[in-house]
Amino acid sequence: MIPFRVIPQHDGPDGCPTATSFIQEKTEKELKEAYDSVPKPLILQRMRHFQWLKVLLFQGLPARYKSQDASQPWLMFWIINSFQLMGVQLDVATKQRAIDTLMQCQSPDGGFGGGPKQAPGLLPTYAAVSTLACVGHPGPGGGWDQIDRQKMYAWFMSLKQPDGSFLVSRNAEIDVRAIYSLLVTATLLDMMTPELVAGTASFIASTQTYEGGFASTSAPYYISVDTLMDEPRPALGEAHGGYAGCAIASWVLLKPFMTEEESKKLNVDKFLRWLVWMQGEQADYGGFRGRSNKLVDNCYSWWCGESLAIVESILDLQEETGHEDEFIEDEGDDEWVDTDWWLYNNKALQEYILGLGQDNAGGLRDKPSKRADVYHTFYSLAGFSTAQHRVYQSKSLQGSLRNKWKPSEAFTPSTAKGEDDRRQATRKELWINARSWKEDESSHRYVGSPNNRVNAIHPVFTLLISQASNIMDHFYGQTSPPKS
Amino acid sequence: MSEQPASDPPPPLLYSMREEWKDVQPLDQSDLTNPLVPIFYPPEYKDAMDYFRGIVAKGEKSQRVLELTEHIIRMNPAHYTVWQYRYDTLLELEAPLDKELALMDELALTNMKFYQVWHHRKLLLLKYAQPAAELSFISKVLAVDSKNYHTWAYRQWLLAHFDQEDLWSLELPSVELLLQEDVRNNSAWHHRFFVVFDSGVREGDEDREQVLRREINFTKQKIAIAPNNLSAWNYLRGILDRVEVKYATLKDFVVPYTTPREERPVVEEEVLDLDNPRPSSSASLPCALAIEFLADICLEEGDTTKAAELFTSLAEEHDTMRKRYWDYRVKECLGTQSTRT
């Protein structure tokens, strides 16, 4: 770390050197040296990543990962979802081990903890349930039907705050990661109720900063002990890619519950502008940064890339393009055909990920001077996927889902009895809203060779689209009768 | 986080070998023989965690629990369950919170990137309610990492929660110092917005017109020093949006930043125009952020042709990385963008 008062000599942009421009220039040099030495055309080192992840999954993690002891479901989520993106199938026995390992983390108080015998937390709950969406199944031992939704719901409500936000766990911090984790879990498992999410959309809007991005949280002001003021509700911390990704995905999930007035509280144009400015310059090789004037980091390939995919969909830019697949064999610019879909430079982003984000020993990393870890591996691959595939909310799919919907028995929290009619109407809308994202099969864009393709990812759920669909169809009672 | 310095004392005796812990039944984390993603815990860590699980099962809240949880937190500051139990124990024992806060001073400096270190501090402050000393502690942390997210969020929580004028009063000078040191420190810019616009009106700031003038002039000066600075332009846009003042009021200021230097004859009177400082002599021009700003002014004024021209110059020449976005803005100007929801 560079103490900011000691700035080594350098010219600096605009002839004005500061601590920020010093580390920026140092990083640009690092990126250039690394990029120049990478063989071209750029290749996704699939086998190396696979081997590296496989060792971690089966044999385990070295001692330095003890800092992840309270994130065990996350380790599974990152590794297994990296496999899914790279098209690696898990065998039945491994899936069962994954289910058994995860179910050990379910807390007797509801929700999942960061490991066996740990307190439940919203973040590990999200990671566990999302991983179960990949590896689990209905019936005994499959994980899905062993999730205790009544207890989980009561625990959710115990974390709810008067301003619509949630604690990440008992007595813990409040932020938009908690909201995203809760909303994904509750949506996948058919647990969304008006009481659960009352005020949450307004809270998310309050975390949008003057820059257009989103902060970690906001501060409520009270008139009296139990009366919240509408204003001020200042954002705490500056606009940040990670929180932005959580906030915008949450916003989309809340859509069926939003009033007209609430839906206007978020400024999408301003968010879009902030997002595109997060993409680094040519000297950054088009990687994304997480905050203004900070360094690029591969994990923001996902947090910003995912946000852009969602914004593009909100702005309704997406009709099926009908273009042919585009495989870019070489790096030559002439072969790259732009479409109207991506609002950022998805070609440069793919180049950053392939050219600078891969560790030769396997795994993906923040930048060349950092070692690979499972967090960066997954979010870099996920960002890579959003830069390759156009996934959008399809109006025609919404129509056909609407026709397909069949009334089914709803989960009703024991505390919310007597709201069955309202629940029925909203859960249908929720299911349609969440299920109507699809891949535009005709507009892939691959840097390097077609062998660099990874699977398309759902920008809201951070899962393969089919996995989000399968678990939702089960919990919303929309599965087709089993084929004989 | 970091390598153990050679001078560290040897690790303490394992709990399993200590007489005074004999009464606790250590608990394994799992009875699965074949879990996925097992972590190879160092023996010291596993031993402490086994005894922690034993303590939780017993429901014991005692002085030795404070020692045990501190030991684990030093090995893994992200263990929220351990922090939670420590907090419960502190309350149960009515332990002296100033002592706990002193411990947090040490841990925050060595583990400043962990949520839990800052949150625990917040819990203590909620009970202890003595925020005055906090701001100087925060400055100490920011001297090590001037952009630490948790530190800034904590500082802002502290100000908003206690909302005391003597806390607020030093914030603006502090921000000015940070921006003087590094005009690109976005955390400091954000804090300025938080203090001036986002959290009610400070004492002495009641004349909002005057505050707006002050802030615009401040930002112009900072832009003049280093025009290619996203943080400063975002601040400028942010305050104009907040007070609903048109961007066009800054047209005279912006134009000199939108053209290459050689096209711009230096006229002496202009240099002396204090309201509209010119770009410094070493600035790289034209500045993409200024062109974008001017294009938005043109849109305000209804000159979509000129706006489209400026966005096109960004797309084709001055900011090609964002070509897709500038093309989108051009289409928006020309009214060919598909309908928005």
If you had to describe this structure to a student in words, what would you say it looks like?
The complex is a heterodimer of chains A (about 475) and B (about 350). Chain A is mainly alpha-helical. Chain A has one domain: Alpha/alpha barrel (Glycosyltransferase). Chain A is built from 18 helices and eight strands. Chain A has helices at about 20-35, 45-60, 70-85, 90-105, 120-135, 150-160, 175-190, 195, 200-205, 240-255, 260-265, 270-280, 300-315, 345-355, 375-390, 395-405, 420-435, 465-475, and strands at about 215-220, 220-225, 225-230, 235, 325, 390-395, 435-440, 445. In chain A, strands 1-4 form a two-stranded antiparallel ribbon. Chain A has a two-stranded antiparallel ribbon with strand order 2-3. Chain A has a two-stranded parallel ribbon with strand order 5-8. In chain A, α7 (about 175-190) packs parallel to α10 (about 240-255) and α16 (about 395-405) packs across α17. The radius of gyration of chain A is 22 Å and the shape is globular. Mean pLDDT of chain A is about 90; it is low at about 1-5 and about 320-335. Chain B is mostly helical and about 350 residues long. Chain B has a domain at about 1-95: Serine Threonine Protein Phosphatase 5, Tetratricopeptide repeat, CATH 1.25.40. Helix content of chain B is about 60%, strand content about 0%. Chain B has helices spanning about 45-60, 65-75, 80-95, 95-110, 115-130, 135-145, 150-160, 165-170, 170-180, 185-200, 210-225, 230-245, 250-255, 270, 290-300, 305-320, 325-335. In chain B, α2 packs antiparallel against α3, α11 runs antiparallel to α12 and α16 (about 305-320) runs antiparallel to α17. Chain B is elongated, with a radius of gyration of 28 Å. The mean pLDDT of chain B is about 90. Chains A and B meet through α1, α2, α3, α4 and β4 of A and α1, α3, α5, α7 and α10 of B. Chain B: This is Protein farnesyltransferase/geranylgeranyltransferase type-1 subunit alpha. Chain B: Belongs to the protein prenyltransferase subunit alpha family.
